[in-house]
Amino acid sequence: MKIYTKTGDRGDTSLFGGQRVPKDALRIEAYGTVDELNSVIGIVLAGSPDPRVAGILTQVQSQLFDLGADLATPRSVVKKNIRRVEPRDARTLEKQIDRIESHLKPLRSFILPGGSADAARLHFARTVCRRAERAVVRMSRNEDIGPGITIYLNRLSDLLFVLARYANHTAGISEIKWTSSSRS
Question: How many CB atoms lie within 10 A of CB 49?
Fold first, then answer.
């Protein structure tokens, strides 16, 4: 099978189910940003993070493929091999957040993104996750995407934030507290 099909040369693409849509459609923007997030998580993993973090992120990458396939398949299309993301999928992330947070000091102020290289990459993944969430919310105003996708992405950004804090904790790097630069 060839990697190029030439079917998108005029600026449209196929959804699962066969429907052709413009490549700048909200649905394509949403699952394209989820794909970008998955690639950023791959960059985090390439940095050989803590094994606990790597295990969580590897699971997340698989879940993001499911989420992308869900977004690429309109709800009107019934496909047996498409796993729909449900609100319960976010509960798994919540349990991971709780486990990781148990190793961290409570957060009492805003912190600046950064610290260790792993933490900085995780913060970058978090911001891409938030962008994916915004794209999904825009799409959901026009199309039925089900109840689980937005919840999952919201919780995933929380998990990425906690993992960034954990990366700094395990590296022995203090978080930098935000202080306003405004002068009153």
Answer: 24
Beta pairing, strands 12-14 & 20-22: antiparallel
CATH 3.30.420.130 assigned to domain 18-103+114-171? The reply is no
- What angle (nearest 5°) sits at the alpha carbon of residue 62, between those of residues 61 and 68? 85
Query: How many whole angstroms from its chain centre is CA 97?
Result: 15
pLDDT tens for 59-75 read: 999 999 999 999 988 88
Q: What is the pTM of this model?
A: 0.89
Helix axes 117-140, 26-46, angle to 10 degrees: 170
Q: DSSP secondary structure string, the chain?
A: --S--STTTTSEEEPTTS-EEETTSHHHHHHHHHHHHHHHHHHHHHT---HHHHHHHHHHHHHHHHHHHHHTS-TTS--TTPPPP-THHHHHHHHHHHHHHTTSPPP-S-B-S-SSHHHHHHHHHHHHHHHHHHHHHHHHTTS---SHHHHHHHHHHHHHHHHHHHHHHHHT-PPPBP------
Token pair, residue 116, equals 């260790």
Domain boundaries, the chain: 18-103+114-171
The per-residue pLDDT for range 116-153, each reduced to its tens digit, is 999 999 999 999 999 999 999 999 999 999 999 999 99
